[in-house]
């Protein structure tokens, strides 16, 4: 017979994993921001994104091991699992973005469209509020403003994404360039969504624990 | 120690939220149906969709507050949360559709493709069966025909979507128009999926409660 | 009052459903592999994929009935439900792939791009490891290597998908052919993702049961 106890441990390891994962996402969005600089070394950005994606995989792996070997966890195992997995998802989209810009040779163009840089800026801000929020999971205090801000940023990203597509489909670029930039735009938009999923999971956990 | 009681309250507020949210979706699909009329005022349709999306956000917000302040709920908190969030997702796709048709200026064409109007019709029927089903959550009776019909409609929408793409890629339109209509088609298809997700959650709740 | 017992039945029916569903997916990827042969009868492949998708729907339907009529289940109802639904999702993407290749008349081309055939090969290997893993759910032993391999294959598929897009956007094909092949590529990529979702659910179940 299993009965659910609300006994919670003092072990901080789980919060450290989430914080490290989120700090790694800040590194990721900082690398993407380098793409905004004309003449950026896109191959180098893409490779360094690959490196920190590898770091994220390592953190996620350690987190899963910790879940599997812990008798008690600070909140439901499934939620810890989901949160770790969703933080990892964000990194996958950041890495994919850099890789596509590189593979498609998009930086041979004079500059990336302004709306694309706006999307990268939104991601950078989402990464920062997420990294600030993760340590607060320990006390479950002051998290509400985080998920509200993260969702607000997602809406801002959504608008930038729509206007980016309007520009891409305006006739300014040839069809193949449109298709390439559309792929990059889609990854950026998935990354803003992925940050929102993290925020939604934090909200769900907070609702359960309150 | 938490033990799960199957004590259920008489409070009808939750069912009212779901019903209002679904009725709002009917307003949304009615607005999209206006796009089928040649010479439709697309800007006005898009703006009115923006207004009712705002109403949906408000309903979802009230629902979440109600979850957080209720001691007992008619079924699992997480399922109430998910159902509210999924009803809201449908609205996001309806609003996005109207907005894209407007932003891309697609109505300068003689008429939207027939398969696109079929998709809008499928959405309208999904909205109506959903709005009829929501009040039945109170008794959990006669819901099965709803989720079967909603899934059947999603299949119908899927076929219309595939045939729409065949038409878009047939050479009838220039590449940029194809890309714009493809975006609109994708939103419509996501909306039919989103209605199916609502139906799947209702089925999951019914399975648990039975 | 409901209290969760860890009493587990000897009934093997559930594992049979999962095994049959996964074996059906092997049939599906074998059919897709026929597309690699120049001069393949694409209409016939598409129709046979439609038939086995119908078989999958039938298996899923029987599984859901079994869940609803069973007093005890080998693991959480929701997880059984999710696993059944995710196996069904894979089939939907396999069927869609065959149908799109047929509807778009893509086989009038000399051959499908090499990277597309690589993606189909990845799917075939994912189907085989999944079919081998399903009977092991009964003992929950030796499943870890399955989900690791299935995730590794998804990564391999991801790389093939990216390189496929690089080829599609290289200028080798006209814009409409690019758009058609992109749709097929997306379905294949969704299918590799869907196999990964199955593996993730198996992992989640194993973590809970351990």
Q: Could you explain how this protein is built, in words?
A:
The structure is a homotrimer of 210-residue chains. Chain A has helices at 13-34, 42-69, 77-103, 114-133, 144-168, 175-209. Chain A has 210 residues and is mostly helical. Chain A has a single domain, classed as Methane Monooxygenase Hydroxylase, Chain G, domain 1 (Up-down Bundle), CATH 1.20.58. Chain A is elongated and about 55 Å long. The first copy, chain A, starts with 12 loop residues before the first helix and ends with a helix. The mean pLDDT of chain A is 91. Chains in contact: A-B, A-C, B-C. Chain A binds chain B through residues 3-6, 162-163, 165-166, 168-169, 171, 175, 178-179, 182, 200, 204, 207-208, 210, and chain B through 1-4, 67-68, 77-78, 81, 85, 96, 99-100, 103-104, 175-176, 179-180, 183. Chains A, B, C: It comes from Luedemannella flava. Chains A, B, C: Pfam families: PhoU_div (PF01865). Chains A, B, C: This is DUF47 family protein. Chains A, B, C: Belongs to the UPF0111 family.
């Amino acid at each position: 017979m299993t009965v659910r106890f609300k006994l919670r441990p003092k072990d901080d390891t789980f919060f450290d994993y989430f914080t490290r994962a989120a700090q790694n996402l800040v590194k990721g969005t900082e690398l993407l921001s380098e793409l905004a600089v004309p003449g950026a070394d896109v191959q180098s950005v893409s490779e360094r994104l690959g490196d920190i994606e590898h770091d994220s995989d390592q953190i996620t792996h350690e987190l899963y091991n910790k879940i599997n070997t812990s008798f008690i966890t600070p909140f439901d195992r499934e939620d810890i699992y989901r949160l770790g997995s969703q933080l990892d998802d964000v990194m996958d989209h950041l890495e994919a973005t850099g890789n596509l810009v590189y593979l498609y040779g998009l930086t041979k163009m004079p500059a990336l469209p302004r709306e694309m840089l706006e999307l990268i800026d939104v991601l950078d801000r989402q990464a920062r509020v997420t990294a600030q929020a993760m340590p607060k999971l320990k006390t479950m205090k002051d998290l509400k403003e985080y998920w509200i801000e993260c969702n607000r940023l997602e809406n801002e990203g959504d608008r930038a994404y729509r206007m980016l597509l309007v520009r891409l489909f305006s006739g300014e670029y040839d069809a193949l360039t449109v298709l390439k930039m559309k792929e990059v735009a889609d990854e950026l938009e998935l990354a803003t969504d992925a940050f929102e999923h993290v925020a939604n999971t934090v909200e769900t956990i907070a609702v359960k624990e309150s």
